[in-house]
Protein: TetR family transcriptional regulator
Organism: Streptomyces aureoversilis
Amino acid sequence: MSSSTHATLGVRQAQKLKTRQALLDAALRLLEEQSLSSLGLREVTRVVGVAPAAFYRHFRDMAELGVALVEESLGSLHVMIRAVLAEQQEAEEVIDRSVEAVAGHVRRHPAHVRFIARERHGGVRAVREAIAAELERFGDEVAAALAAQEVSQGWSAEDVRMLAGLYVDHLVMTASAFLEASPEEERAIADTAGRQLRLISLGRRHWHAA
């Protein structure tokens, strides 16, 4: 294959990826005002400026596009929280950094957070299942980080995973609370979230004595 053919294929692949991302971005904007189950692919392709038939070069249907949005929406949050948990800090500092990370994520990606909050219990089964699977994987990652901490010595894998589930559920709930908050309300939400996580942390230290 000639270098010019390689270059042509490279340009085509780049254009394909660009169009795919444009479809995702357009859908996300439209989903600010409606649920995925009510969104039609013609609405999405109209915004992007491509023919409806072009949609199928990238996604089988709107459900598959929704699953891709789930991966995009939760992926960066995974990375941030995993990085925070990996830091060798006191529990109080980890809690504060986790809440800060969630607040920052919501400020940068409000549409992604709103999409997850709405579709977690929405009408598209494939998307509900994708969100549940991503949060399950998120919980497994958090559990692995918690298990490595000294305070978890002697804990069963089941108890560590239960604790991780509490943290993940709380962080998702906190992200949803940040969505429509003013700066003053955001500070109050962060303070409450931090105190609640500290309560969970305190219970963690005394769990085996119960």
